[in-house]
Amino acid sequence: MQKITTMTGGCYEKAISWLKKNFFFFCLILLLLSCTSDVIKDLGEGYFLREEGADVKDILCEKPNGKEIPASVIAYDFDKDFIIAKQKPKLPQDPLYDKKYNYKRGGEEFYYWIINKKKHIVIGPMDKLEFQKEREKHRISESLALE
User: Fold this and answer.
1) Where are the alpha helices (DSSP H) in 36-143?
2) Domain containing 64: what range?
3) What is the pTM of this model?
4) Is 83 exposed, middle or buried (0-12, 13-18, 19+ CB in 10 A)?
5) With CB atoms 3.0 to 4.6 Å apart as the test, which of 46, 71, 122, 137 could cross-link to 90 if both were Cys?
C-alpha cells in the first residue's frame, strides 16, 4: 500500500514539474494567438490601416504630425498623395484619439474623409456632397473609389 502512494505521489510531482517547465511556453502560445486578429496595412507616408476585430478599423499615422480617421472605417482607397475613406463612427469615440470629432448627423450615418498624406491634412467628417466638392477641389483621382 505504501508503494502505491509513493508511486502516485511521484507521478503527481512529475506532472507538476512538467507543467512548471512548460508554463512559459503555454503563456507565449496564448499571447501569440490573442494577437493574430490584429491587421496592419501600410498606406504610405507613415499612415496605416489598423484592424482590431470587427468593430475597430481606423486609419492612424506613426508620425507625430500625422492625423487620423477614427473607427470604424468601412471602405478606403489610397494613392501616393491621398487617402479617402468612408466611415460609420463607433460611438462613444475612444478617448485615445487625438481629437473629439463632431458627427453632425449622429452615429448612424456614413461619413467621408480625405487625408492629404504629404501635408498631413485631414478633411472630415463630411457628408457625401461635401466629400465630392472637396475631392474636386483637391483634384483627387477618380481611380480612387469607395464603392
Assistant:
1) 128-137
2) 38-137
3) 0.73
4) buried
5) 71
